[in-house]
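Entry 14. Ran structure prediction on the chain below.
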Amino acid sequence: MLNRPVPNVISWPLEGVDENGRLQYARDDDSIREVIRNILLTRPGERLMRPQFGAGLPDFIHQPNNVTTRTIMSNVVRKAIEQWETRVRVESVEVLPDRNRLSTVQIVIRYTMRHTPQPRQLTFALDLGSV
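Output, structure tokens:
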């Protein structure tokens, strides 16, 4: 695999202004993690100029935490990341029930950055029982 330079992409949200007056933003894997969270938590139709953008995970709140819901969530997550975050290859997406909270799922995303083969993982919880 060729070792290509890391694309320099400005992530949203910006982190403020540094001591020299320049905008600060996440880089490398931190940038990718922020963008993935943004994709997953944005509902389609929420962005004016990109009405298809987002996975809409908040739409799963108040849905039953069962195999069907978790399978649909996994498919939605994979499709949205593959469509909107082209700097990564999604290796797997698992949506697992939380053993300690019946209404919570753990979303585990395994991916590699296209410019480096090192495997990465992003995990976060979503409570399906609350707003």
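The two ends are 44 Å apart (CA to CA). Will compare against last week's run tomorrow.
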